[in-house]
Recover the amino acids of this structure.
C-alpha cells in the first residue's frame, strides 16, 4: 500500500519526529553513527543497504541538522558524516527500542553498554544503576555481548568486537 | 524506491524491533493506545488513517503480542484492542522520541506528562525529578500543553483536553 511520507493532520511531535526518522533504515544509520561510524563506505558495508538509499538518507539527515558533512580528503574529495547534538539526542530512543527488541524479539544481547566511570552495565532506561546517572555518550562503552553475530566480516563489525566508546571514530 | 519490510543481514535487536514497529503509523497507533484509546473507530477518527492500514496494523500488532483483542459487544460483534505488557514497554521509546520531536521540530508541547503521586512534570527521560523514579504508566497523567491543537474535534482529541491517566480507557 503506497503511503506518503507525511502524517497529515497529526500535528504532534511524535508524528513530526517520525516524518524525519521513521523512514526505513534511518534509525539504523543513526545507531551506526552513535557507534562512531562516519564514512559512507563503512555505513554501506555494515548496513548492507542499497547505495542510493544510504545516500538519500544521509543527505536528508544533513539537511535536517542531525549530521554535519566534513571533508576529510581533498583528492578525490571525500566527506564524513558526524552526528550533531540534535542527532546524538536520539540515543535514548535508539537504546530503549533496541533493549525492547532484545527482551521480546531476540534471544541474547549482541551488544552491552557500560558506564566507563564505574564499569557497570546500563539498565533498560540507560541509567547506570550504581551511580544513578544517565551517562553522557562519551562515558558509555559498547562491548560485545553473548548474542554477537560471528558471521559478519565487515570492518565495522570487526571493530565492534572490541570495547569502544560511543561517538569516537570507529575506524581510522 | 520500493524497500522490503525486513532488514536482511541486520541481526540486531534494533532492526528486529523496526521490522515490527517501524512501519508507518504503527508507533502512532501505540501512542494512542497508551493514552487509553481502544476502539477501532476511535483510532480511525483520531489518526485520520486509511481504514485498511489501521486494520492491517492492529492485526499485525495482535499477532505479534503487543495488543490483545477483547470482545466488548456481541451483536453486532465488536472488539477492542488493549495493549499488552509487551506493548506497554514501548512507552520509553514513544516518550523519548516525542520529546525529541518537541525540542527540535515543534514549538510548544501539545501534551505534558505528570507523575500522579506528586504532580511534577516528567523530565526528558520519563523520570519524575523530585521523586527520582520512573513512574509506572498507571501513575502518569497526560495533560493538555500550551501547543494543543484547538482545531481537531474528534472524540479522542476532545477527551484529551482533560487530564487523563495513561492506559485508562479514554472513552466510554
Amino acid at each position: 500500500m503506497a503511503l506518503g511520507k507525511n502524517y497529515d493532520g497529526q500535528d504532534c511531535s511524535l508524528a513530526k519526529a517520525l516524518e524525519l526518522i521513521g523512514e526505513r533504515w534511518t534509525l539504523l544509520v543513526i545507531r551506526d553513527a552513535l557507534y562512531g561510524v562516519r564514512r559512507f563506505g563503512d555505513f554501506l558495508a555494515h548496513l548492507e543497504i542499497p547505495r542510493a538509499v544510504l545516500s538519500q538518507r544521509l543527505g536528508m539527515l544533513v539537511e535536517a541538522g542531525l549530521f554535519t558533512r566534513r571533508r576529510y580528503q581533498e583528492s578525490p574529495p571525500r566527506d564524513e558524516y558526524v552526528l550533531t547534538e540534535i542527532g546524538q539526542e536520539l540515543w535514548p530512543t535508539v537504546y530503549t527500542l533496541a533493549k525492547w527488541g532484545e527482551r521480546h524479539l531476540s534471544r541474547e544481547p549482541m551488544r552491552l553498554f557500560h558506564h566507563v566511570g564505574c564499569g557497570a552495565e546500563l539498565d533498560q532506561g540507560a541509567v547506570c544503576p550504581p551511580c544513578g546517572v544517565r551517562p553522557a555518550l562519551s562515558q558509555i562503552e559498547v562491548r560485545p555481548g553473548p548474542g554477537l553475530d560471528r558471521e559478519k566480516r565487515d570492518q565495522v563489525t570487526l571493530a565492534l568486537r572490541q570495547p569502544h566508546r560511543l561517538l569516537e571514530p570507529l575506524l581510522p
Remarks:
- Chain A has seven helices and five strands.
